[in-house]
Design a protein that fits this description.
Largest sheet: 6 strands, mixed
Strand content: 35-45%
Order of helices and strands: EEEHEEHEHEE
Structural class: alpha/beta
CATH architecture: 3-Layer(bba) Sandwich
Number of helices: 3
Oligomer: single chain
């Protein structure tokens, strides 16, 4: 399971001109799955994402998590996180899970985030999505489990 976390002041996903998810302050989370990923990885990642202390405290230090700042999460499925461009010029995506494996994990990840009391918005698995975001500082993390 690979996740890219971007701290944002706002973010939205649009599909065919229709906004399917939008948040204010929080985290944009791009998530991809491998064929060997398991539900326990999903739980671990949900705990990691919600507990990340990447928001500033009163002294300007990254010391607060999503709950402390009243933040939300926008989750977007992203199989291309498993793209391999080490050979040639065209990436291979054989390392990405098939939809039959990835969809239940994607849905479990969203449920695990919500179970932690964090507001969650989403894109739509497998859709062509336009993702718009406004960074909240230079905070981008890559997480893998």
């Amino acid at each position: 399971m690979r996740v890219v976390v971007q701290r944002v002041s706002r973010a939205a996903v649009t599909i065919n001109g229709r906004v399917t998810g939008s948040i204010g302050r929080g985290l944009l989370v791009l998530v991809g799955f491998a064929p060997v990923d398991l539900p326990d990885q999903v739980e671990w990642m949900a705990e990691k994402v919600t507990g990340l202390r990447v928001f500033a405290d009163d002294e300007g230090r990254m010391n607060r998590d999503l709950a402390a700042v009243g933040g939300a999460v926008l989750v977007v499925s992203q199989f291309t996180l498993y793209g391999d461009a080490s050979k040639g010029r065209r990436p291979s995506f054989v390392g990405a899970a098939s939809p039959e494996v990835a969809i239940p994990l994607y849905e479990a990840f969203i449920a695990a985030l919500r179970a932690r009391g964090i507001p969650v918005e989403t894109g739509e698995f497998g859709a062509m999505m336009d993702v718009e975001l406004v960074n909240d500082g230079p905070v981008t993390l890559i997480l893998e489990r």
